[in-house]
Design brief:
About 40% of the residues lie in helices and about 0% in strands. It starts with a helix and ends in a 5-residue tail after the last helix.
Length: about 60
Amino acid sequence: MLEEGGRVLNLGRDLRVSEVDLVTGGPPCQLFSTAGKRGSVMDPSGSLFMDFIRIVKEVQPRFF
């Protein structure tokens, strides 16, 4: 993840842990909405929430 960020920003190096200020995202609302299927993180598209957590742990931004 940090390697890709450095490449996208043309830094010539990987981004460093804590060098990112903000990571933003949200779970697919269909799984968690009272109007939706009321799925959970166990649903295949619900795993996106776990990916978000993994990215935040890896990047360690100031805010998320």
